[in-house]
Request: fold
Amino acid sequence: MQTRWDIGEPERPTINEETEQLKSDLLTLNMGPQHPATHGVLRIEIWTDSEIVAHAIPHLGYLHRCMEKHAENLDFRGVIPFVDRLDYLASMNMEWTYVAAIEKMLGTEVPRRGELLRIMTAELQRIGSHLMAFGTYALDLGAFTPFLYAFEEREKILRLFEEVSGARLLYNYIWIGGVWNDWTDEQLERVSQFCDTMEIEAKKYHELVSMNKIFVQRTANVGVFSLDDCFNYGASGPVLRGSGLKWDLRKVAPYSLYPEFDFDVPVGEGEVGVVGDCWNRYYVRMKEVIESIKIIRQVLNKLEAGPVMGKVPKVIKLPKGEVYLRHECPRGELAFHLVSEGDAKKPYRLKVKSPCFTHISMLPHVAPGQMIADFVATVGSIDIVLGEVDR
Amino acid sequence: MLNVDLNKLAELLNNQISGANATVHFPEDLKKCDPSLTVEASKIFQVAQFLKSHPETPFNSLHVISGVDYVDWMEVAYVLTHYSLENPRQMILKVKLTDRVNPVLDSIVKVYAAANFQEREVFDMFGIRFNNHPDLRRILCPDDWKGWPLRKDYVAQKDYNGMAVYPDGKMNFEDREFIIRQDMIKKAQEAKAH
Reply:
């Protein structure tokens, strides 16, 4: 087995003549595993020429929990809590994707109210996840205040989820066939109030951070992913949209009841900096928050009384075959490749296509030639969650 | 799967690449399961190159590479996507590997850069080696880990560098299944020997 890294001296980037004269020996620097800018336990080995990154090697696996192996030993319902723990900032979206894969193979029909509640929770979760991305990104760049503002709003979402599912982060709320608990009118009223305040807050964030001179200087024109790079590396979600392609699965390959809804797909337009840089990725997320609010309001208008759980057999047995099902999650396209052997009570194989895993593989490509501080900004801008990368 | 005529594509592949041996597998119920296209394992590099640069129906992106262990053979599934707002496309491309002892495939990193990490994961989990891969190391498990965890006959090592990782009675009782699988493989090997 080949175990050692041996590629020889990497090619050094040249920024301009001035830096050419200042070249020194390469220094190996470990960013992580416990580095605040890595959002978890990611270690990035950087080879630096003074302040300039010559080469970056991500080392993954510090949070590897053998989730795919565990899933092979659990029944189909038992996997849902494990799926929660993949992307612990967007558990609702994770659950929904997994459950949708099972439902497709099972041919279950979900009642309309259940499906609408799923859309609502998923969009609320998307707002929560983007708020976290916004707060921690500002924190990466040295601004502490936005973090507190973001958490204040995120807390409201978590309280609602806690009331309805019993847990703040890992819900086990979306079940095969529907959702396990209905929302009361009072709770829905609070969701509506949250939408109103969130809209005002979002404007505040833009004043506080988006157009802030220091923030713009740190992020604009930094860490540019061209559209070709995105295709080549299979990027998706805000990273792809930040690079200028209007690709959103909710529009391109619509699932669930999304065709009924009216919303835009924000893309990086280069208001500040160039398309595909850190600022544009950040700004796409902030615009998506507004779009999610639009969707939630439409859900609230469409909701009618009815059951939230469909009819599901007590013991779930899937037909022989496989399914590859993908959903648009806050961090990109999440997909499950589920293989069933036929009449088995457990998945034969459950492969998770994790968007962040793909995005991390882009870092070695974009790193050479960046300053270390810019590299931190780039890592933060792709908004990684290590639970999902390491599985 | 999505906007792809697999039969036509298979015919095209068989005409263009000699020995590609492309076959299409349709499930019983197309609404419930996804169809897939299987090609010869030794031709995967040419097939990937052809699919990426094909003038009519190109696939400009690779999403994921996933392995499946069927005990008698192993499968590697490539999910290819075309990012295009007018006609998005997606398909599952598969190769079959019958050799469990030393499974080898050609790397497609030169065609799709996304394959770099994905192939490392398949190597890490299934022990499938990729020729011409720029940096084939384990990615999720530690470098000195023994065995290929997602194979069905895998038994976890009891200790790792002096640390107990799998003491007796720690894991759930379902692990019996691994032992049953092992028996199956032994029987198959014995049958082959005879």
In short: The first strand of chain A starts at residue 26 and ends at 31. The mean pLDDT of chain A is 85. Chain A touches chain B through 50 residues (CB under 8 Å).
